[in-house]
Write a structure and sequence with these properties.
The chain has 117 residues and is α+β, with helices and mostly antiparallel strands. Helix content is 26%, strand content 29%.
């Protein structure tokens, strides 16, 4: 049994084509999910002179990228995400890796590494 990882990345929307292309180039990647999300982080710049209510609804758009993979694929996927999404400017995003305890394909009841095939 292989250890499994859940990779979550938050990237700039304009970097989605580059990230998609980088992930398509990985032959071992079984799949990826993308979601449009909005939020803010602790490094946001306060906008003086604006009403607080406007600051509360002025979220930054990002794309959430999610990948489930074997432990042996995690570094390659993380590196592809990091290099394709990087601009070198504040707000490039974040990448998180977490262990996955179990995975089950609903249709066939396959478990763990069979799910990634």
């Amino acid at each position: 049994m292989t250890n499994m990882k859940h990779i979550i990345a938050y990237i700039r929307p304009n970097k989605l084509p580059a990230v998609t292309l980088a992930l398509h180039r990985l032959p071992s990647l079984a799949g990826v999910s993308f979601s449009e999300v909005r939020g803010f982080s602790s490094d946001r710049v306060p906008k003086m002179g604006r009403p607080i209510v406007q600051d509360l609804i002025d979220y930054t758009p990002y794309v959430r990228v999610e990948v489930f993979c074997g432990d042996d694929q995690a570094y390659e996927i993380k590196y592809a995400l990091q290099t394709a999404a990087r601009t070198g400017r504040n707000g490039d995003g974040k990448i998180y890796l977490a262990d996955v305890e179990d995975a089950i394909r609903i249709q066939t009841a396959e478990r763990e590494e069979e799910v990634f095939a």
